[in-house]
Amino acid sequence: QVQLVESGGGLVQAGGSLRLSCAASGSIFSMNAMGWYRQAVGKQREMVATITSGGSTNYADSVSGRFTISRGNAKNTVYLQMNSLTPEDTAVYYCNAAGYSDLHSIFDSWGQGTQVTVSS
Question: Using an 8 Å Cβ cutoff, are 6 and 93 in contact?
């Protein structure tokens, strides 16, 4: 099993910044990609940003230019730097990790979520 632990959420005023962190642990043979998703009240979960093992990144149009996803020096960690936050960014943010537990077994794991609230 692969466990993800997120941290860094909280309450911030519009225009402010937050940095989310996610650390993966457990049976990880290789990591294909890690990413951040969010779900606002009454809405479906949506992709925010992803990063592959090779360093390729992908962002939702709504956050491009404001958010930056990066991998940490520690193995299997990922960060999301969020700048110029708006109330529309308010949501529960989830970390996701996908890869192989061994040569034949894949995993696709989710964190417990961390609340980000942006006040106007």
Answer: yes
List C-alpha distances in Å: 115 to 9, 40, 109.
Answer: 5, 10, 18
Alpha-carbon gap, residue 9 to 28, rounded angstroms? 26
Confidence tier at 52 by pLDDT (50, 70, 90): very high
- Which pLDDT score, from 0 to 100, does residue 50 have? 98
Q: What is the dihedral of CA 116, 96, 21, 77, to 10 degrees?
A: -170
> 82 with 89: CB under 8 angstroms?
yes
- Spatial distance between the Cα atoms of 87 and 23, rounded to a whole number of angstroms: 26
The predicted pLDDT at position 72 comes to 87
Tokens encoding 75: 């193995």
- Candidates 50, 23, 53, 42; CA nearest to 114 is 23
Angle at 109 between CA 108 and CA 112, to 5 degrees: 155
